[in-house]
Amino acid sequence: MSLDTTPILLSATEEARRQIEICNACRYCEGFCAVFPAMTRQKAFADGDLTQLANLCHNCRGCYYACQYTEPHEFALNIPAILAEVRVESWERLARPQRLARVFQTHGVAMAGLLVVVLAWVFWAASVLRPDAGSGFYAYLAHNTLVAIFVPAFVLPLVLIAVSVRDYWREVDGGRVRLAQVLSALGSALRMKNLSGGHGEGCNFERGDRFSDRRRVYHQLTMYGFLLCFAATTVATVMHYLLGLEAPYPLLSPPKLLGVPGGLMMVAGAAGLAWLKLRADRSLGAARVWGAEMAFVLLLGAVALSGLALYGAAGSSLVMPLLAVHLATVMVLFLLMPFSKMVHGFYRLAALVAEAGKPAPTAGGE
């Protein structure tokens, strides 16, 4: 009678549980990031615990290069990759609608590119019906028309994200939220503390033997650039509706003083992140969604670059084609928020808030 030697294939969650339990016994990487102190609080891990640990992970990869149990060791640990897979699965499982999330994760570049082309053509075609009044790009598409299109395109994805984050909170048993937790989580997120590596020297995302803060800097450029652009839009809305000051605005005005630096920061940050992704080892992340992640980075860069180009082309014949491209990229970014990596900011902040509410781990994890 022969024994069946067929290897047992574990699900991502089961494999994560196996690897995390080995890490919890070793604890060599205990101070590397938020994941390792969190895992020491318990010895057994429910599915929700693994979802929480996966979303605490920032994929800096320092633990992999420090680990003595990676391949060819029989334990074959790869914590960055397995937590990345569990993290992506949590986004897909909790997203609404789930099927659309899965399609984007596997066909992100094609899906985003096709949507940009189609919507750019739609906006170009709509410019035929020019308004009777308006200046700048409002001479091609009326302000009220743009508001009617983009408000629902922005609000609906935020509602879907709120529902998915609510389900995430229930899955990880986040409990009651206190102000101190939120402030602690915001502090970590704004500083991107967990991208500084276990010893504050930076992470190993690019190469195992090289500590670098490049990834954190590029993330900060992208995030703060996006926030500046959002602030510019908010200020312009206030100026338009409350102060009666309509676009276009001069360079030395609040919308431009916020939006132009923000756009430049987004372009630099997105270009840097794309460059790092091309250099990094795909096997240490969720390789199956590499294209979707790259599509999101490129989309962010396209939004900022097309906005800057539109501003630079003011008064020329290039305004309408650039306006169509810019509006299309912005709308695609909004519409895909619940399914693209944009949602990781919401989940990661929720994970940090939940972690801030947990008791500090004690020696030995008892």
Protein traits:
single chain, 366 residues, 2 domains, two-stranded antiparallel ribbon, 2 strands, elongated, disordered N terminus, Tricarballylate utilization 4Fe-4S protein TcuB, Citrate_utilization_prot_B
Summed up, the domain count is 2
CATH 2nd-level architecture of the largest domain: Up-down Bundle
Shape: elongated
Number of helices: 13
Biggest sheet details: 2 strands, antiparallel
The tally of strands reads: 2
Main β-sheet, spatial strand arrangement: 1-2
- Low-confidence segments, given as residue ranges, are 1-7
CATH uppermost class of the largest domain: Mainly Alpha
What is the helix/strand order?
HHHHHHHHEEHHHHH
Kindly report the CATH topology of the largest domain: Fumarate Reductase Cytochrome B subunit
Strand content: under 5%
Distance between the termini: 46 Å
Helical content class: 55-70%
What is the mean pLDDT? 87
Task: Give the radius of gyration.
Answer: 23 Å
The class by helix and strand makeup works out as mainly alpha
In a nutshell, what does this entry contain?
The chain is mostly helical.
Task: Give your account of this protein's structure.
The structure is a single chain. By secondary structure, the chain is mainly α. The protein folds into 2 domains: 12-90, no CATH class; 97-356, Fumarate Reductase Cytochrome B subunit, CATH 1.20.950. Helices cover 63% and strands 2% of the residues. The chain has 13 helices and 2 strands. Strands 1-2 form a two-stranded antiparallel ribbon. Strand 1 and strand 2 form a beta hairpin. Helix 3 crosses helix 5 (79-94) and helix 9 (214-241) packs antiparallel against helix 10 (254-279). The protein starts with 11 loop residues before the first helix and ends in a 10-residue tail after the last helix. The relative contact order is 0.15.
